[in-house]
Amino acid sequence: TSFIGAGAYEHHIPAAVWEVTSRGEFLTAYTPYQAEASQGTLQLLYEYQTMMASLMGLDVSNASLYEGATALAEAILMAVRANRRNTSHRIVIPQSVHPYYREVVKTIVSQLKIEIIELPFHPDTGQCDISSIASDFTALVIPQPNFFGQLEEVDALTDWAHEKNALVIGVVNPLAMSLIKPPGQWGKNGADIACGEGQPLGVPMASGGPYYGFLCCKKDWVRQLPGRIVGRTVDKDGKQGFVLTLQAREQHIRRAKATSNICTNQGLLVTASTIYMSLLGPMGLRQVALASHQNLRWLKDKIENLSGVKVLFSGTFFHEMVLQFSYSVTDIIEEMDKQQIAAGLSLEHFYPKLKNTLLVCVTETKSLEDLEQYVDCLQKTLAKFAESPFKKISGE
After folding, report:
1. At a CB cut-off of 8 Å and minimum separation 6, what does 187 contact?
2. Residues 47-61: pLDDT tens digits?
3. Which of 5, 76, 94, 356 has a CB 3.0–4.6 Å from the CB of 119, allowing a cystine?
């Protein structure tokens, strides 16, 4: 039983999702180069774009990107092109953004004279600490929720960035947006761009992939949006038809004018997500998000009664939390693994200051028995370590 999240989440997927997605019409369709022969694929992508734009509270969505990390990198490149009021080419990224996302961003933008400024997180709340930023910048990245599961003060951060003539990029969990305020409603004017990983929407856990990235924006910046946009129109007889309205990639225009050279869209996974969102609807998505959060709240309340462990950050969180232990977290993970429980993700590798901390995720797939088993196993593990003086970490 896995309690590891960290950007890849186990959710219940209705059987109909992949039963339909696996039909030959979808499974073998590569890409809709010929609109007249690809109306079904184009319509599905159009529906996907409509749903994603609605979920993010923004005007436009593209037809998907490679995965969440490259979607963030593309959003940053897009913001640099779009924001002509600020030519500093500095991008502020909180350290509470997924570590792998930050690595991918650095790899992609490092040769493009774009400076990445890392924003520290507050040790008590796990939220962004903007007090360290004095220089001007082109764009601010806001994770919601962040890597620790904490919800950021998105309204204040968005207005602060806009006051400094910077654009705002929200990197979000799409499922969470069915429950909390979407990027298009942040602050007075909303975020400019929203991106993230689409895996929570009907894509199963599959040994690390494939996943897909989504990217939405205000209509003001649509010309800078990488990837493809499917539009709806009418033919000469007045019949509805679907076409590729925008495809600003190197295959279609001169390489130097392309907005992206890596904006592969993940058609099959987007098909699954579109069917998943269609079946659940707005209320269904909200219920999944609520059930995930309620399960974690139950687990948190039980764990807080145990000795040798505490919930690290205060504030509001969504279906993930950070636990800090008085004992070696490596030993705790190994001990719980013997009971067939993946206890969570150790954070020390990514954040050396967060010693003996564990990122724990709970979704709606966990039953009450699963949660009780986790608490019982953790309690026995902590009690066992409490009896051994060699397991205690002095001064921590």
Report:
1. 154, 155, 156, 157, 158, 159, 162, 168
2. 999 999 999 999 999
3. 94
List the one residue out of 76, 343, 351 whose CA is nearest residue 224: 76
**Which has the higher per-residue pLDDT, 185 or 32?**
185
**Three-state SS for 337?**
helix
193: which strand partners?
A: 169, 217
Backbone angles phi, psi at 290, to 5 degrees: -65, -45
**Contact predicate 288/277, CB 8 Å:** no
User: Residue 132 has which token pair?
Assistant: 């360290």
User: Taking the mean position of all CA atoms in its chain, how far away is CA 387?
Assistant: 41
In angstroms, the CA 53 to CA 26 distance is: 22
Q: Are 84 and 110 in contact (CB under 8 A)?
A: no
Residue among 202, 252, 271 nearest 41 (CA): 271
**Assigned token pair, 3:** 């309690």
What pTM was computed for the model?
A: 0.93
Residue type, 280: L
Residue type, 312: L
Q: How many Å apart are CA 239 and CA 223, to the nearest integer?
A: 27
* β-pair partners for 357: 324
Return d(Cα 171, Cα 175) in angstroms, integer.
12
Q: Do the Cβ atoms of 193 and 158 come closer than 8 Å?
A: no
What pLDDT, on a 0 to 100 scale, did the predictor assign at position 254? 66
Sequence length of the chain is 396
Q: pLDDT tens across 224-270, in order? A: 998 889 999 998 999 999 998 876 555 566 666 777 777 677 889 99
| One-letter amino acid for residue 231 of the chain | G
**Alpha carbon of residue 267 to chain centroid:** 19
